[in-house]
Amino acid sequence: MIAKLLGKIGLPILVKFIGRALSGMNNNLARQAGTMLGEVDTAIQKQQISLDELKEANRHVEKSLEIEAEVDDKTLSTIHQTIRQELASGDRFVRFWRPAFGYSVALAWLMNMFTICYVVLSDNQRAPEIIMAMVETTSLWGIALGVLGISVVKSSSEKTKKPDLVSKVINKL
Fold first, then answer.
1. In this structure, what are the phi and psi dihedrals at residue 155, rounded to the nearest 5 degrees?
2. DSSP letters spanning 87-100
3. 157 vs 149, which has greater pLDDT?
4. In this structure, what DSSP letter does residue 124 have?
5. Do 86 and 101 contact (CB within 8 A), yes or no?
């Protein structure tokens, strides 16, 4: 929603606010990026960047957001269709495997959190080791949530897995 709003408002405002935010960070690379965006903002204000170029950049941002929204809509539609098919199935296991697995994951998570709380509150000398061992189970939680259809991390490789929809929209440009 915020991205769509910024795409509609325009590139100059986006450049100005992101430049200011990056300039205030305590990281050299972020400050350099903020400085460069400040220079772009100055060029926009001095009209060194033409109005046509700004309109084209805004159009590109809006079109990119439309493409992303279409991909998200397609993904959600596929997930909803899968869940509807599971619910309509005559097989009891197919209908209830997802809720049963979800409850078991939630129960396992609660047990882990209670264990960590107990270890910390009981002043166990091996608490750091136990907590670090629990941190090592992060990938297992990601897999469990992935089975439930919950995406924990959206990587750029996922965006390239759907080139058919993206290429269709780009070809329309």
1. -95, 165
2. HH-S-HHHHHHHHH
3. 149
4. -
5. no
